[in-house]
Structures are given as structure tokens and as C-alpha cells.
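Consortium newsletter contribution from the modelling node. Members have asked for a concrete example of what our holo predictions look like. Here is one, prepared for the calcium ion complex that several groups have been discussing at recent meetings.
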Amino acid sequence: MSTPHLMVAQRTDPGLLREVNEDSYGLLAGPQAGLPPGSGVYIVADGLGGHAAGDVASRLAVETILQACAHTSSWGHPHDLLRDAIEEANNAVYRRARQDAALAEMGTTVVAALILDDMLMLANVGDSRAYLVREGELQQLTRDHSWVAKAVEDGVLTREQARHHPDRNVIYRSLGAASSVDVQTYEYRLQAGDRILLCTDGLTDVVPDALIAELCTTPDVDEAADRLISAANNRGGPDNITATLIAVSSGDAVPNPRRVTPHRMETVRRPSAPPSQGPSAERATRPRTETAAKADPNSKAPPEDATAAGKKRRWWQRRRRG
Ligand code: CA
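And here is the predicted structure:
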């Protein structure tokens, strides 16, 4: 495949039970951002640490990674570029957490994709995921740094048990927890027709793989991304939901002029509610009736533990609780 043409849709939504969206995402694409043609950097992050902390961590991580990629001269070494950028983000979150007692517990996951010609470089920390949809098949490309994923690898849990386990949101690796972080990287070769999905567990916890695959192949990428968010909300929307969907087509194809790859650097998050509305535990679990009223009345009820589901915790926070 020659230099690919990339179409991208990015969405984030607080879901139906949370007032604060702790997820963030961003992208860097196109020659105007200093990148080679047919290339892009895409990031999704899921903050942890509670109100006024998780969203700070995820936003700071995304901004730091985008800045690092925008000002790099290392495009010849894309793996190092992603790893260095994420390590820089870890430093930024770690330092900020130590400067402000209110942010002391904050951290974030991150999954980052860098596309350069037909190469897809990925890097992750935590349990936000990258998927490939090729010829209708969904394949998870990243390894989760979560307690349940480790238990599956060790043969302690089955995949189905892990999917419904009450501790499925406990992660053992995150940005901001320590002065250094172990970043895992991956490399794949893209084909025309591929779709790459970066997402948080607010999507994958509630939407079955087969439906994710089906929705990702919706021809219009914007519509596909909207349908992914709706699918999670139709299943109770217990957690913040973020999806970045990238459609890869041959650079030889004439792109639809209405659909251009964005040439900009952008970090987006939903505005947080003001901080003076009560204890964070209540805020995190109180149903949002005004949003819930818009949900499909025929949708399935949220899982029984929906109020707790998706509340990301670090390994030691789980252990402390136990
Ligand atoms: Ca989450």
C-alpha cells in the first residue's frame, strides 16, 4: 500500500452515571502539524484518582504526548518517539501529583497509535485498548496491564470470567504512579480497508466484541464512532466512553472532499462539573437522569454493579480495600 489516506473520528462521552468525564483524547496529523504525509498520532487516556484529579491526569498526559511528538526530530525512530513521549507524560503527571495534595492519587492509562505509511506503531500503559478490524474480524492489538488480564494469562480466570469480574478495572500499571514507567510497544503493518479503534473500558466493558466489530465497519467513520458511544450508553453507560476510529484507505483512492484528515493538534475533553456539588463518591455514582432520559427505552438495564463498574483503581488501591 502506498501512503495511506486516513479518516478519523474521535468521540468521548461521560456515559449515563458519571457527571465527570475523566477520559481524554487527542490527535496530531498532517504536514501542517509537522508530520510526514499520511501519518498521524492518536491518543486515548482514561484518568483515575477521582473527581478533579483523573481528568487532570488524562488531559495532561495527552497534551504532553502531543507536544513531544510535535516537537520531535525522531520520526526516523517512531517506537522511541512514542515511548519517550509517554515517559515524558509520566513525568509530567507524577510531578503534578506531588505538587498538589488534591491531585496526589491521580494517574491515567494511555494508548497511543502512530501511523507512518503502512506501519502502525502502538504503545500502552494500563487497560485502554487498541483494536484492529480487518475483514470484519476484531483483534485486540494491545495487552492490558490489568489484574484480570494477568489472571487470564496465568490461567486463573477464563476470558468470560474476566469480563464480568468485579475487579476487572484494577490496573497494575499507570502513568503518574512512579517516577518511571514501563511502556509496552507494538508494531503492525496496515492494509487498505483496515479500521483501527482506540478506546477506554467504558466501551469494552459493556459492548460485546461482535457488536464492536460490526459498528466499526459502518462505512461513515463519524457515524461509526457515534454508534459505538450509543451502544455503550444503550447498555447503561456506567463509565465514561471514549473511542477514536481510524479508517485506512489506499492513498490512490480519491478521498471524499467532505472528509479530510484533520490538520491540527487537538486535545479534547468534556467540561467537568463545578467542584462544589458534594462528595466525590456521590457524584461518581449518582444517576444522571437528564441524560438517562435520552437513552433508548428498549435498551438493556445496566449491570447490577453498574455504579461501581468502570471506576478504575490501581493495584494497591484494590489491595488496600481488600
Ligand atoms: Ca474507564
